[in-house]
Design brief:
Its main location: membrane. Keywords: Disulfide bond, Glycoprotein, Membrane, Repeat, Signal, Transmembrane, Transmembrane helix. The protein is of the alpha+beta class. It folds into three domains: 124 residues, SRCR-like domain (Mac-2 Binding Protein, Roll); 100 residues, Mac-2 Binding Protein (Roll); 66 residues, SRCR-like domain (Mac-2 Binding Protein, Roll), CATH 3.10.250.10. Strands 1, 2, 3, 4, 5 and 6 form a six-stranded mixed beta sheet that branches. The longest helix has 20 residues. The radius of gyration is 25 Å and the shape is elongated.
């Protein structure tokens, strides 16, 4: 009985040590949410051997990094060979784990059969490596970017309207309405990226923008920048007699929806007409004048 209790205690201690000492990152990908999978263990980064590596395991890695869902699990050092130890192999996740460290793996098989880095596993996730956090809706919040060191916020001294245009565009959140500094959406917990971001506004992703490492600022989480995006990426008029009349529909996060007439007035209509190059608003009509929409309100 004592031997059984001792064995249970040792297993528990091993689990505690493992849980506290392992992290994950993606290396050498063309976007932050893709790359060679590396785990941090015993003070150093190491790769994952691709034996038994599959979409279930990849999904756990993506979820741990807040990188969306797994698009592809890669093999044979698709993202290049690592240089550190081979820290995990024969990974076997159930799919419910929140971290790769919680998945089963076989260290004995890894040492025996994973001899070099040409077997390094990788993953391509659906995420952008960019997010807005703690906002009132999906298209507003504190700007956070994913790098190999993890998720971090952006200093307000290095972020401007052109950078915000790229952020809103990349997240399919329309155009920037307002850039807010001084931790308007609360303080982040990770690092603060302080190098100068130099977007022109025409880039499709924030990672394409050039950066100036020589223009770093002394920033803390008191300087976290946030963005409010318009939330819609396109608009249209449906069922009218011409292209400048009809039921108003907005595209929000890739979905089209109608607008409730209770919150629609001539001022809003004038803005819409201007955006559609339709002159000035003549009148607003509600109560399904142009027919009921089939999409969400």
């Amino acid at each position: 009985m004592e031997n059984c209790l001792m064995l249970m205690f040792l297993c528990y201690m091993i689990k505690l040590i493992t849980s506290d000492s392992v992290n994950v990152r993606l290396v050498n990908g063309n976007i932050p949410c893709a790359g060679r999978v590396e785990v941090y263990n015993d003070g150093q980064w190491g790769t994952v051997c691709h034996y038994w590596w599959d979409m279930t395991d990849a999904a756990v890695a993506c979820r741990e990094l807040d990188c969306g869902t797994a698009v592809k699990a890669t093999y044979d050092a698709h993202f290049g060979q690592g240089s550190g130890p081979i820290s995990m192999g024969y990974v076997e996740c159930s799919g419910s784990e929140t971290a790769l460290k919680d998945c089963k793996s076989n260290s004995q098989y890894t040492q025996q059969y994973c001899k070099n880095h040409n077997l390094d596993a990788g993953v391509i996730c659906s995420g952008q490596g960019l997010r807005l956090v703690d906002g009132l809706h999906l298209c507003s919040g504190r700007v956070e970017m994913l790098r190999t060191e993890g998720w971090g916020s952006v200093c307000d001294a290095v972020f401007d309207q052109q950078d915000a245009e790229v952020v809103c565009k990349q997240l399919k959140c329309g155009a920037p309405v307002q850039v807010l500094g001084a931790a308007a959406f609360g303080k982040g917990k990770g690092p603060v990226w302080s190098e100068e971001i130099q977007c022109r506004g025409s880039e499709s992703q924030i990672d394409i923008c050039s950066r100036s490492s020589s223009q770093k600022h002394n920033c803390s989480h008191d300087n976290d920048v946030g963005v409010i995006c318009s939330g819609y990426t396109d608009l249209r008029l449906v069922n009218g007699s011409d292209s400048c009349s009809g039921r108003v529909e907005l595209q929000y996060l890739d979905k089209w929806g109608t607008v409730c007439d209770a919150c629609w007035d001539m001022r809003a209509a004038s803005v819409l007409c201007k955006q559609l190059n339709c002159g000035i608003a003549v009148s607003t009509v509600g109560s399904d004048w142009f027919g009921e929409g089939s999409v969400e309100i």
